[in-house]
């Protein structure tokens, strides 16, 4: 609108630009420059545009929106997830309600099998797992007794190994967790924070669902369609194939929201925060189905990949062919997982202190806050940041 004042320019980290004032006269500025079009950036872009009528420029260095949740139809016409399987699950009604504005859902409960001793058995370990592996026919109480007799209580539970050995004993720990964890993280479970496996339950009943959340579903037409609907707003401009460095000095904006790696923002000044990466091998197979469930885990260290995903189980798509993805963990490549170790948290806190001293930039998301967050937690984080910004806006207007 014509009455809008020209936005104040804060060329963050580039005081020279402020001095020469090159950008300062522009009237076509944005209220927010949001870096990263994944859940964190896209949710905040939608909220700011819709709720506060802010003008938002949303950029991503990748050629697509959706971040790691991006899905697309491959050459055979099968809907696949480019960055590995993403299953939506949450206990937060506000998060589910919010996303439901942008998509319908397909009810889906995730089930995973692990290849152990040449068999495919349910993981998390449950009654079926124990009975199949040991050729038994125990009832619930029997399984509880069995696991108790094998568990090796650990006085001071600190690591992932302590958690699992304490719950199910060393043998099941080695069959299901040790090899998988070593491959996934490049570290032995004894070197990893207990939080990594604390979220994997053990059950004595027949419940073979991977998650216990109250809301478990997949976006009916896929994640990318949901993101498209979220970003379909006249106040939001999306620029793809665009790195933050390409535009940080070229475009006028008031504030930055940064959802990329926080250490990258600060030029890795204290050293690189460790992230674990993955290589995905996507394949189409000329048969209708490949495996009995969406995900089969391969805990054996003799197999180089950690798991195989068959997407049609997730999406409900009918197709005469099927597409699958093998995941190979690696140290190099895109940053996917913050590595949960105390020394990494310490390094992160140094970056967080820098971030606290840079109030014009809001750090958000899995990489921006170096947290091993699921999609719903990232949505909740973005909604919480929005609530704070909305309050600030109301206060500044004297409301
Ligand atoms: P991202 O999705 O990573 O988005 C960040 C974006 O910022 C990226 O697109 C990146 O290209 C862009 N970017 C970064 N730096 C720059 C820069 N300098 N300039 C421009 N752009 C930049 N969660 C679940 O809830 N359920 C699951 O089943 C699940 N499975 C997963 C499986 C895998 C293999 C992985 C890796 C993650 C999984 N997650 C799952 C977690 C989920 O992917 C994240 O919670 C979610 O994607 C985080 O959103 P985000 O916006 O924080 O980050």
Folded structure, characterized:
There is one protein chain. With 399 residues, the protein is α/β, with parallel strands linked by helices. Among the domains are: 15-69 and 220-273 and 338-396, Rossmann fold; 112-198, no CATH class. Helices cover 34% and strands 20% of the residues. It is built from 15 helices and 17 strands. Strands 8-7-13-14-15-12-16 form a 7-stranded mixed β-sheet. The chain has a 5-stranded parallel β-sheet with strand order 10-2-1-11-17, covered by helices on one side. Strands 5-9-6 form a 3-stranded antiparallel β-sheet. α2 packs parallel to α15 (375-396). It binds flavin-adenine dinucleotide. Residues 35-41, 59-62, 67-69, 83-87, 243-244, 259-260, 278, 336, 365-367, 373-376, 378 line the site of flavin-adenine dinucleotide.
Query: If you average the pLDDT, what whole number results?
Result: 92
- CATH evolutionary superfamily of the domain at 15-69 and 220-273 and 338-396: NAD(P)-binding Rossmann-like Domain
| Number of E-state strands | 17
Terminal-residue CA separation: 22 Å
Provide the gyration radius in Å.
23 Å
Bound molecules: flavin-adenine dinucleotide
Low-confidence stretches: 1-27
> What class, by secondary structure content?
alpha/beta
Text of the CATH class of the domain at 15-69 and 220-273 and 338-396: Alpha Beta
